[in-house]
Amino acid sequence: MLLRKNLKHLASNIPNLLSISRLFLVFPLILFLEINRPFYVFILIIIGGLTDYFDGLIARKFNLKTRLGAILDPLSDKVFYLIPMTFLCKNNFIPFWSLSLILFREFIISSLRNSTKDGLPASMLGKFKTFFFFISVITFFTPLKIDLLNNLALIFYWLGFILTFVTLLGYLRIKKNII
Asked: Membrane spanning segments where (predicted)?
């Protein structure tokens, strides 16, 4: 009976465990970025994207949404795509000013989420923004070195950048109605 209860408790935390695993993947991600191993960066970003997909799918399908998950999932998403973007910025693939504005937006949204009792749920456009940033980072680090892929990576980056501010306006509008 105790084993069954513990297994049920563990299963109810699978989405949170997936989000936490994404945070732990950050350490090898930074290492592989620093020692210039784009193939391993590519693989880790794919794994990170899959954990993001499955933590949300499992949480929704089995009604396992938690307050901790509402904090962990967006945090691990941000950390997981912003670290490679910082590296891309450092190596002049993307402009510093754009990454600075993205970081500024993330700070504002995090502050809004923390100041609202029930949090601020992710919008569909916000999910698209995250998707575009993940695809951009994956495409930048693909092992295939084709100019077209770099151009596609930039297109996905700028689409994510635009949605960064479209969603900021949407969240500000929602927050205004909550107050």
From this structure: 12-32, 39-59, 79-104, 125-146, 152-172
Report the alpha-carbon distance of residue 64 to residue 169 in Å, rounded: 29
Amino acid at 178: I
CATH number of the structural domain spanning residue 167 = 1.20.120
CA distance 25 to 28: 6
In this prediction, residue 163 carries a pLDDT of 98
Q: What is the tally of structural domains in the chain?
A: 1
Positions of the chain with pLDDT under 70: 1-12, 118-119, 178-179
What's the DSSP call for residue 4?
A: H
Q: DSSP state, 116?
A: S
C-beta atoms surrounding 24 within 10 Å: 10
- Between CA 103 and CA 82 the distance in angstroms is 8
CA gap 47, 50 in Å, rounded: 5
The pLDDT of residue 79:
92
Residue-range definition of the domain harbouring residue 24: 2-178
